[in-house]
């Protein structure tokens, strides 16, 4: 279906690749594995492989690649920028999950608490697979954006990531969209977001 963010980037002349990584749904249980949080390393390796494929095929300049995502995609953008920091010159994360333990706690008082607990799981991947706990690994400038009424991924995920990046003395821009939820379904907010993304990409990988 139509997705406005990749369409805008493509219209600006950028090559846009949306990889179907293992850990995402739609290709059966073997492809899904446990999921993109428990098996985050597999998901990130597929995204990295996609990046290398773009470069090796001459489709993209390996020195001018950015990574962007929304929701889990925002999580993946941050996590992959930490896992393979030399691959990316800019990172955009909109409404991202940034800490897996916090994600479980967010639902602790709701009827789906056990579902989320089982989905995210427990173990070392909670620490290793939480971007906010490894912000010092990111090399590229980061743009964070989040609506403060997001009930899907809570606003404090971006607050936590922003603090972690600032404490690690990284380049970060954090934009709060007041009164908006996970979709940022507001033309002025989306225009502002796209303008900021465009400015970041112009500055880091060029037009």
Compose a concise summary of this entry.
With 207 residues, the protein is an alpha/beta fold.
Structure description:
The chain has 207 residues and is α/β, with parallel strands linked by helices. It is 44% helix and 11% strand. The protein has helices at 4-11, 29-32, 40-56, 72-83, 100-106, 113-120, 124-128, 156-167, 187-204, and strands spanning 66-70, 90-94, 142-147, 172-177. The protein has a 4-stranded parallel β-sheet, sandwiched between helices. The radius of gyration is 16 Å and the shape is globular.
Sequence-ordered SSE layout with sheet pairings:
Layout: H1 4-11, H2 29-32, H3 40-56, E1 66-70, H4 72-83, E2 90-94, H5 100-106, H6 113-120, H7 124-128, E3 142-147, H8 156-167, E4 172-177, H9 187-204
Parallel strand pairs: 1-2, 2-3, 3-4
Helix pairs in contact: 3-4, 5-6
């Amino acid at each position: 279906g139509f997705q406005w963010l990749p369409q805008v980037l493509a219209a600006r002349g950028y090559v846009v690749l949306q990889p179907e990584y293992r850990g995402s749904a739609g290709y059966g249980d073997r492809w899904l594995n446990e999921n993109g949080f428990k098996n985050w390393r597999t998901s990130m390796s597929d995204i990295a492989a996609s990046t290398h494929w773009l470069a090796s095929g001459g489709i993209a300049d390996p020195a001018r690649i950015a990574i962007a995502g929304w929701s889990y995609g925002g999580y993946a953008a941050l996590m992959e920028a930490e896992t393979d920091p030399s691959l990316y010159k800019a990172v955009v994360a909109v409404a991202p999950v940034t800490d897996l333990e916090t994600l479980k706690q967010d639902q602790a008082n709701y009827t789906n608490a056990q579902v989320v607990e089982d989905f995210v799981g427990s173990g070392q991947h909670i620490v290793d697979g939480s971007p906010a706990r490894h912000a010092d690994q990111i090399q590229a400038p980061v743009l964070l954006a989040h609506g403060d009424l997001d009930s899907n991924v809570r606003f404090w995920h971006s607050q936590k990531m922003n603090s972690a990046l600032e404490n690690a003395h990284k380049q970060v821009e954090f934009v709060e969209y007041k009164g908006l939820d996970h979709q940022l379904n507001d033309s002025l907010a989306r225009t502002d977001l796209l303008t900021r993304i465009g400015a970041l990409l112009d500055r880091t990988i060029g037009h």
